[in-house]
Every structure is written in structure tokens, then in C-alpha cells.
Design a protein that fits this description.
Strand content: 15-25%
Bound molecules: adenosine-5'-diphosphate
Strand order of the largest sheet: 10-12-13-15-14
Order of helices and strands: HHEHEEEEEEEHHEHEEHEEHEE
Number of helices: 8
Length: about 500
């Protein structure tokens, strides 16, 4: 029964491990898919923003190239805002005059950017206010220089639709502008549980070197719970199916073994029956023999006339009776159970475990707490294994029957194998009602039974089998406790241990 509980825990563990390993693989695969999608989308955002930056460069380059024909020839660049929503303002500065139309504090920065643009031969970054999402881009030209004021809030992060779950922002010199807040708001980038995906790359425009950052948190809600659950259920069902199949196979093996034992038992019982009949018939036959012999003597004394006939008949009767006795004696020799069996070395621990395992369903049904103990664990005896099994099963069967008479909470069965010098001693003790005092001296008599429907041959057979193996079987009531204890002694096999061998 302890084996069954251990097996159940083992199967449960196998199901849990299988479910966990499969769920982990599913989660890793889903995470891999999230990462691939995230990287594709982040690269698209980078490409789109870089294209916009390049566009700003191109606008300024075009303006610088197409210098106005003369002062006052209009300002066509002012129409740019209508074409590009992100262009908030376009300024121009001609000759040596200062930049006008901007706050005074921005003028030096614009002048510095213009100088940088002249030196680099391309647009240069002017004053940047990323908190408001705005910056100036300046291109020096001769005689007119231009400056664009760009509004980042008018730029979508991606032309193909933004990666809604991710947070997207631009960074430069400690300033930050958030283009998209992500599914969980900007707090999404904070340390919330679950894996996180990150992307960082500077825009591909030398004039506007903003760092693009994209970050996405894979929250619990986005894990593939349904698949993981389905896999776990599938693993549990598969493990249960394998366990049920193996259990069924063990049950079949157990049934086959019980059938075999039953067959052996029936054969042995038949032999015991024949032995009992022989025992029963031998006495009347002996009496017939004695009386016919007496009659013969009487006739010989008194009926002289009939003497020859009577003598002949009586001699014949005596001869027949002797023949019958001979036949019975032969029959008895024939059914001697131990005849022809070969003694072998039998390890008792394995034998007890196998016996309990075989009777496990029956013991479980009867609510019997059974245990087996072998000391030393490698204790072995010389015996006919089939006969020994037969004895142990008979004793267990008797104990289970006796235990039916006590409350199910009190049903205990203990099998103990111990070494006692040159003998191996096996005891089968139950917590049943014990053996009635008047039954004690007759336990091993053939046909003695106190059970309705009992044959009274089990213990008699066991005793014969034990004797056939050079052993001894005895039965008694448990000392100082309830129940019966049956003790089987058998010759110990192999080394008898220190000091034992001489006995
Ligand atoms: P049967 O089981 O057919 O009665 P057995 O030879 O096996 O024949 O048993 C003979 C008798 O011994 C039983 O009827 C019963 O009275 C007694 N007996 C055997 N085992 C036990 C036991 N464990 N506890 C009490 N009595 C027992």
C-alpha cells in the first residue's frame, strides 16, 4: 500500500514536470515571436523618423540653393508649413543682419548653428527643447541662411501604424520627448514584472542626432496562458493514461499469478483430500482385516465341517483387504505434495513483498493495514518456492478472513522474517479475534474447520508442505495482544552468520 502511494506521487511528479517543461517551451517560443515582431516594428519607427529628418535636411538644402532673386521678392518658403505639418516656422537671415522673429535668448544659438552649418556644409542643429517636442535646424547659405522650427508632436512614430504596446521616445543631452506612451502608459518602462524588450539607435541623419528608444514590457496578460493550460491538461491526461495502462498490466499479471496460485492450491488441496480419505479409510480397512482374521480363527475352532471353505474365503478377504490397504498406501505416496520438488535458495524479503503486492487489492478492499519486515534484509531459506508461496498465501488468506470479524480500523497484518541460528523464522500475525482455545490443538487436523463453508484443509496442507521442506509450522495466540500468530521455521540458506553455523 505504501508502494501504491509512492507510485502515485511519482506519477504526479512526472505530470507536473512534463507540464512545466512544455509550458516553459511554449512561453519561450511566444516570447521569441514577440521579440521578432518588436524588433521589426522598432526598425520601421527608426526608418520613418530618419526619413523625416532627411526630409528636413533636403528642405533646407533646397531653400539655400534656390536663393531669392532679390529682397522683397516674396517669401515662398512660408508656404512650406502647409505641405509639412511638422514645420512650424521658417526663418531667413540675409547679409550681416541678425536672426529676427525668435526669442532673444535663441539668437546666439542660431548664429552658432549657422556657423557650424557653414563649416560642415550641411544643416546643423539649433536650440533644442525636447520637453516641448521642438527644435531648430539651420542651414547657412549665401547670401541668405534659413532656419526651420520642427514640431515633433506632428510626427507619427510609424507610417505603418505604431507598435501600440511599446513606449517610443527620443533622447538628446538629457532631454526626452515621448512619441508614444505605450499600452501601459509611460510607467510601462518602470520595473514591472515580466520580461522587457529594448531598442536603442541614433537617427540616421547627421544633422539631427537624436537617440531613438523603444521599450516594451511583456506583461502577464500577454503570456500564452491558453496554450500552456492546454498543454498541461494534455500532459496530465497522457501521464494518467500511461499510469492506468501500466496499472492495468500489473493487475492482469497479478490476476494471472493468483490464478496460478489457485490452480496450484487446488491441486495441492486435491492431494490433501486424497491423503485425508486415505487416512479415514485406512482405519476401517484395518478393522475389516482384523475381524476377518478373527472369524477365520473362530471357524477354524468351531465349524470343523466348513473349515476348508471358510478358511479359503477368509484368506481371500484378508488378501483383498491387504491389497486395498496397499492401494491406498500407494495413492498416499503418490499425492505426497513435496514429492519431486527441488529445494532452492529463496530470499524472504522479496517473497514477503511479492506476497503483499499480489494480495494488495484484496487487502485494500478489506481495509487491512499490512506491513512486511525482514531482518537481516538478505535473509534466505532453503525451500520449494512454490510450496513456500502457497503457505504464505494460505496464512494471509486465513488472517484476512479472521480480520473480517473485527472493526475495520483495527485490521492489521504483520509479516516478519527473522534469523534464528540455522533457521529462518517467518511469522504471520493478525489483529483478529485469535484462535479459540478448543481449536488450538486441532488446527492442523485435516477437515478441522470453524468456518461456515470452510474445508479445513488449508493449515493441514501448509503443515505437510512445511514438513516436506524440512521445516515446521505452528499456530498460537499472540502473546500479550489480540490475534493469532503463525510461525514457519525453515532451514536457513548460505552463511548462517557468526556463531550460527554450528547449530
Ligand atoms: P479453513 O480455513 O477452511 O477453515 P484452515 O485449515 O485454513 O481451514 O483453518 C482451520 C481453522 O483454523 C479455521 O477454521 C479457524 O478456526 C482456525 N484459524 C486459522 N487461521 C486463523 C487465524 N488467523 N485466526 C483465527 N483462527 C484461525
Amino acid at each position: 500500500m505504501r508502494h501504491a502511494a509512492i507510485a502515485r506521487v511519482g506519477w504526479l511528479l512526472a505530470a507536473v514536470l512534463l507540464a512545466a517543461a512544455g509550458s516553459l517551451a511554449i512561453a519561450l517560443r511566444a516570447f521569441g515571436e514577440h521579440r521578432a515582431r518588436f524588433e521589426t516594428e522598432a526598425r520601421i519607427v527608426h526608418r520613418v523618423l530618419s526619413q523625416h529628418a532627411a526630409q528636413h535636411d533636403a528642405i533646407l538644402a533646397t531653400l539655400a540653393l534656390l536663393q531669392p532673386a532679390s529682397e522683397g521678392s516674396g517669401a515662398p518658403e512660408q508656404r512650406l508649413a502647409a505641405l509639412y505639418p511638422q514645420v512650424l516656422q521658417v526663418l531667413r537671415r540675409s547679409g550681416t543682419g541678425p536672426w529676427s522673429g525668435v526669442p532673444a535668448q535663441d539668437v546666439p544659438a542660431l548664429a552658432a548653428a549657422e556657423a557650424a552649418s557653414r563649416a560642415a556644409g550641411r544643416a546643423a542643429l539649433g536650440p533644442v527643447d525636447l520637453a516641448a517636442g521642438r527644435y531648430w535646424l539651420v542651414r547657412s547659405g549665401d547670401p541668405t541662411s534659413y532656419a526651420l522650427r520642427i514640431d515633433l508632436t506632428a510626427l507619427p512614430p510609424s507610417a505603418e501604424g505604431p507598435p501600440g504596446a511599446a513606449v517610443v521616445w527620443l533622447e538628446r543631452a538629457g532631454q526626452r520627448f515621448t512619441l508614444q506612451r505605450g499600452a501601459g502608459g509611460e510607467g510601462d518602462t518602470a520595473a514591472s514584472p515580466g520580461p522587457r524588450l529594448d531598442f536603442a539607435k541614433t537617427l540616421a541623419a547627421q544633422s539631427q542626432p537624436f537617440d531613438l528608444r523603444v521599450s516594451e514590457h511583456i506583461g502577464w496578460a500577454r503570456w500564452p496562458w491558453a496554450w500552456m493550460l492546454a498543454w498541461s491538461v494534455l500532459s496530465a491526461l497522457s501521464v494518467a493514461a500511461v499510469a492506468a495502462w501500466l496499472h492495468q498490466r500489473a493487475e492482469q499479471r497479478r490476476n494471472r499469478e493468483l490464478l496460478r496460485l489457485g490452480q496450484v492450491g487446488r491441486l495441492n488441496a486435491l492431494g490433501e483430500l486424497a491423503a485425508g480419505i486415505a487416512h479415514e479409510l485406512n482405519q476401517p480397512l484395518t478393522a475389516v482385516l482384523a475381524s476377518t482374521a478373527a472369524a477365520q480363527r473362530l471357524l477354524a475352532d468351531e465349524g470343523r465341517e466348513a473349515l476348508p471353505q471358510a478358511q479359503g474365503a477368509m484368506a481371500q478377504a484378508a488378501q483383498q483387504a491387504r491389497r486395498a490397504a496397499d492401494v491406498l498406501a500407494r495413492l498416499r505416496r503418490l499425492v505426497e505434495p513435496a514429492a519431486g520438488s527441488t529445494p532452492q535458495t529463496v530470499p524472504l524479503a522479496a517473497l514477503l513483498d511479492a506476497a503483499l503486492d499480489l494480495r494488495q487489492p484484496e487487502l485494500e478492499r478489506a481495509g487491512v493495514q499490512a506491513s512486511a519486515r525482514c531482518e537481516p534484509p538478505d535473509l534466505r531459506v532453503t525451500a520449494d518456492p512454490v510450496a513456500l508461496e502457497q503457505i504464505v498465501h494460505n496464512l494471509i488468506g486465513n488472517a484476512v478472513q479472521a480480520l473480517q470479524q473485527v472493526a475495520s480500523a483495527d485490521r492489521r497484518l504483520e509479516l516478519v522474517a527473522e534469523a534464528a541460528g540455522a533457521r529462518g523464522v517467518l511469522t504471520v500475525q493478525d489483529s483478529g479475534p485469535g484462535i479459540a482455545p478448543e481449536a488450538l490443538p486441532r488446527l492442523f487436523e485435516p477437515f478441522f474447520t470453524t468456518r461456515d463453508g470452510g474445508l479445513g484443509l488449508g493449515l493441514s496442507l501448509c503443515e505437510t508442505l512445511a514438513a516436506g521442506m524440512g521445516g515446521r509450522l505452528s499456530g498460537a495466540n499472540a502473546a500479550g495482544g489480540r490475534g493469532a500468530v503463525f510461525t514457519l521455521e525453515l532451514p536457513r540458506a548460505g552463511n548462517e552468520g557468526p556463531g550460527d553455523g554450528a547449530r
